[in-house]
Amino acid sequence: MAGSPSGIPPAGARLSKQDDPTKAVRLHPQRPLTIGRDTSCGLCLPQEAGLSRRHAAVRLEAGSGRWLVEDLGSANGTYVNGQRIGTGHPLADGDAIQLGRSGPVLLFQLEPVGGAVPASSPRSGPAAPSAGERTPRQRPTSPQAQPEASPSRQPQPPASPTPPASPATSLEVAGERIPIPQIRSAAVRSQPVHPHLFSWWVLVCLGGLLLLPVPVLFWPLQIGALVAAVLLGSRKQHTLVVVLHDGTARRRAFANRLTALSHRNGIRKAIGQSLEA
């Protein structure tokens, strides 16, 4: 089952490859595990075919103590026991998580509170100490648990885990939520608000020469027009352009360039693009 009957979350769980049980990773109750080809993922599988850069995530649900798996907008989908899932799908001990239709299969296994029995041996129960037993560390272990044995590991306390922070799967651009895997690039374009102001300044100067009855009034008019041209010509509009993999783009205008660059850098960091590109 995904959680204990009393609502207390298990001390831990792990994922292991179905075709090679010795390759396993332990799940942390307070830290979601992301899976994909990106090197920033907690479980990086760069050589597996059909995986997205950020394919899926496994986390512990706060309060209920259930382990959940969710798809992060992958191209080929995530399956639990052959059924395609979306977000927040509960996991049970022994569930098979397949990343894509032809991708790798990961087995989800629980570890009881106290770590008495490794998760790779669900059929063996905790050993009851005999009356003369004086060394509590002498507990039966299964052969499959040998690669995972770690004397220095301490069991996780079962009390009140901190709610895990769910990884962001989409970003809001111009009032629209866009899945991160669909974003190809982000850039900021700056354009003057009044691009033809210099031409208007020239026309004002020529008109002053032709129409003013007293030529000496031309100079104050020219200076005033020049100051207005400099002040208004320095104003620019900064547009954040987000290009998607399907070729479409989303735009959002900013009056401040630093604000536009901050939004651009946040999007580039989320999609793994260089901030200096």
Strand % is 25-35%
Strand count, sense and closure of the main sheet? 6 strands, antiparallel
The residue-averaged pLDDT reads 74
Total DSSP E strands: 16
Q: Name the structural class.
A: alpha+beta
Q: What is the H/E string?
A: EEEEEEEEEEEEEEHHEEH
Kindly report how far apart the N and C termini lie.
48 Å
User: Which shape, going by the Cα principal axes?
Assistant: rod-shaped
Strand order of the largest sheet: 2-1-11-10-7-8
Question: How many alpha or pi helices?
Answer: 3
Instruction: Evaluate the radius of gyration.
Output: 31 Å
Low-confidence stretches: 1-7, 115-136, 140-146
Q: Give the helix proportion (percent range).
A: 10-25%
Oligomer: single chain
What does this molecule look like?
The protein has 277 residues and is α+β, with helices and mostly antiparallel strands. It is built from three helices and 16 strands. The protein has helices spanning 197-211, 218-233, 257-271, and strands at residues 12-17, 20-27, 33-36, 43-44, 56-60, 67-71, 78-80, 83-85, 89-90, 96-99, 105-111, 170-173, 176-179, 183-192, 236-244, 249-254. A six-stranded antiparallel β-sheet has the order 2-1-11-10-7-8, with no helix packed on it. β7 (78-80) and β8 (83-85) form a beta hairpin. The protein starts with 11 loop residues before the first strand and ends in a 6-residue tail after the last helix. Mean pLDDT is 74; it is low at 1-7, 115-136 and 140-146.
